[in-house]
Amino acid sequence: MTTHPIDLAGPHAAIAEILARWARNAQTEAERATDAADAKRYRAEAERFRKALYQWSSGARVQLAPGDGYLIPSASRGAVHLTTLHSCSCEAGSNGLRCWHRPIVEAIVEAADDWEPAAESQPLGDRLAAARRAYWR
Q: What is the value of pTM for the model shown?
């Protein structure tokens, strides 16, 4: 299987901020919850987002996998997990539980809405034409 690294140098901080915001929001909901089960669920969500933020900030990086998946390294087992917006191949994900890998993918997708394509990703002819137009103005 061929994978392609994703250049996330520019949006790295944006992804971290999204994860931090989600953790804060979940913690706030846990504190506001009047039902113990809801509070527990929100605390678990906050912890999952904090773990994703910690892993992301500690250097966990993804690779684009064929289809709509991403490869994310395990924090503890030395494995690499195939993660999508709806599933993850990690132990928790395989057992129907929510893991920390999916929030990273969700944050990448949310941040991608604001990314500008790098000039290198545009076809060479388009870049040359833009450079010529700028030069001859």
A: 0.74
